[in-house]
Amino acid sequence: MGVFILFAFLFFLMFVLLHFFLLLSFFLLSSLMGVYFFPHSMITYMFSFGLRSCIGDGGVLTFLSSHLL
C-alpha cells in the first residue's frame, strides 16, 4: 500500500512539474520571439486553471497569474 501511495505521489509531482515547465517554456519562447503562439488570455487561463487544479486555491492564484502573465 505504501508503494502505491509513493508512486501516485511521484506521478502527481511529475504531472505538476511537466505542466508548469511546458507553460513556462511556451510563455518565455513566445515573449522572446515577440510572437505569441497562444492568445494572451488563453495562456493566462491555462496557467490559472493548472494552478487551480493542482493546488486547489482559486481566487488568489488566478489574480496573481492574470497580473503576472
Describe the structure.
This protein has 69 residues and is mostly helical. It has one domain (2-68). 84% of the residues lie in helices and 0% in strands. It is built from three helices and no strands. It has helices at residues 2-33, 40-55, 59-68. Helix 1 (2-33) runs antiparallel to helix 2 (40-55) and helix 2 packs antiparallel against helix 3. The longest helix is centred in the N-terminal third of the chain and has 32 residues, at 2-33. Mean pLDDT is 63; it is low at 54-58. The chain crosses the membrane at residues 6-38. Keywords: Membrane, Transmembrane, Transmembrane helix.
What characteristics describe this protein?
69 residues; mainly alpha; 84% helix
Give the count of helical stretches.
3
- Helical coverage, percent range: over 70%
**Unreliable spans:** 54-58
Radius of gyration: 14 Å
Looking at how many chains there are and whether they match, the oligomeric state comes to: single chain
Shape designation = rod-shaped
Transmembrane segments: 6-38
Keywords: Membrane, Transmembrane, Transmembrane helix
List the helices and strands and how they pair.
Layout: H1 2-33, H2 40-55, H3 59-68
Helix pairs in contact: 1-2, 2-3
Please provide a brief summary of the model:
Keywords: Membrane, Transmembrane, Transmembrane helix. The chain is an all-alpha fold and 69 residues long.
